[in-house]
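[job 0412] stage=complex_fold ligand=flavin-adenine dinucleotide status=START
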Amino acid sequence: MKQTEYDVIVVGGGGSGLAAAVSAAESGCDVLLLEKQPVLGGTTGIAVGSFTTSGSRLQSKAKLKDSPEEHAEDAGKFAPEEIERLNTTELRNHFLSHSAETLEWLEGMGLAFHGPSPEPPNRKARMHNVVPNAKAYVAVLHSRLVKLGGTVKCSAAVVGLLREGERVSGVKAEIDGHEFSLEANFGVVMAAGDYANAPDLISAYKGSEFENIEGINPHAVGDGHRLVDAAGGKLINMEVTYGPELRFIAPRRVDPFEQFIPTGGWKGKLLAKLLPFVPKSIIRKKIKELLVTWQHPEDSLFKEGAILLNKEGRRFCNEWDSPKREILVSRQPGKEAYILLCDHLIKKFSEWPYFISTAPEIAYAYLDDYQRMRPDLVFKGKSLTVLATLSGMVPQHIHAAVEGFNLYVAGEKKDPFGRTGDKMFLGGQTWMLLGPVKAWFTTTEGGAAINESAQVLDAGGYPIPGLYAVGQNGLGGQILWGHGLHIAWALTSGRLVGLELGRRKEVE
Ligand SMILES: Cc1cc2nc3c(=O)[nH]c(=O)nc-3n(C[C@H](O)[C@H](O)[C@H](O)COP(=O)(O)OP(=O)(O)OC[C@H]3O[C@@H](n4cnc5c(N)ncnc54)[C@H](O)[C@@H]3O)c2cc1C
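[job 0412] stage=complex_fold status=DONE, emitting structure tokens
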């Protein structure tokens, strides 16, 4: 790297890092963004893209009167009480009062949203979905950053923070096999995502029984949290996670991390510059092709009588008992399981209100939708033996699992896994297996303690000069349950820290 001194260095090129880099560049800073992976995007780049906010232009268009104050009240109704009481109220209120401006900022860059859509217990419709999915945030912010003259380096892992006395003055980064010391005159912004796939951190903070469970994003290994910790920053709510939950695996034929604009070579640079002139319909079509989903099967499947089998065909858990169910899934061969449905369940989960999962574009997906859109996840047969042949399960095991379950329903035996009260036998002429499902952490909710300027705080509550954190890296103890608040926070915290660093440059 020829240039080794910048105004601002951003660690991580997901949603929060890109927003921070763009906003700082818009505020007159010379910005370097370092991304560990060969592509930008992080978890943001594989997300659906919902952005939940109040007081938006689209709400006004829909004649909805809303306010951040009402939103703040409702945001507290999503998580269970024992989680919600850990929330840092002032920071979450501060965030919610700035999130609509962020949506406007993004619309100003050419991003389109549909909605607002309702999501109770929100009393107003507040969910705005970027069209067609979250890869659009990455493409548009990347293009804007290139246009503003920011520097983006991928395959560039930050491995340490430089200090000048108390102040964090830059980063140590490994780029193309070489180690560089890079100076940041006004601030280092940690935007390195979460630790959903860091078994050591999960085990230390949440418990060793969870250590087999992976993060949906395999690259979310908590580098940013470790760097903050090593610099003396305080980490809070590290035991709180979003999940584990069961999700269907993503289609095997696609690379979930592929993005619309390549990050290397002349093609990437050219496309980043040309993006504002490429017709939106082409961008949408291409980004839609990159769509990957890990849908979450509804618990109602099990409440209505479905059971889980491992890939050998054995039953292994009480399907109603989460997160124990997820822990046990993570201990099965291949960490995989299948949902077994018989006649009465197949009929039931074919129409409202018994959907299999939510789904992009169609909102709710039923069995027919899965057979059409994800045939790779559906095995169907007229007998358990046929089903075993199709799926590779051992016929004796699958028969034994169904017989054992039916003996419990008949009241002849206790359920060996502790289910009680099932009334419907498994049986009939048609059988289905849905899967594989795996247990995954979607995100983790621990982050650096920060103040409203996104400065990282130490154990005594004092800011560490020069060190900032945003997105999942800088959650500051907020509880952001429900859909759409994580991305709203990632992009809002990024935008705000960029403005803050611009102000610092002006006064210093
Ligand atoms: C399947 C899925 C769907 C989701 N859908 C939604 C949704 O619709 N709405 C919503 O609000 N939330 C959603 N979420 C959650 C949301 O996407 C994330 O919480 C949010 O995007 C995180 O943004 P971030 O910038 O903090 O982290 P990321 O987007 O993960 O970015 C962090 C980046 O930092 C990089 N990095 C890490 N370590 C280093 C290092 N040492 N040096 C340099 N770079 C580093 C990473 O490679 C990564 O690119 C979803 C999550 C998942 C898994």
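Residues 485-507 form the longest helix (23 residues).
[job 0412] exit 0
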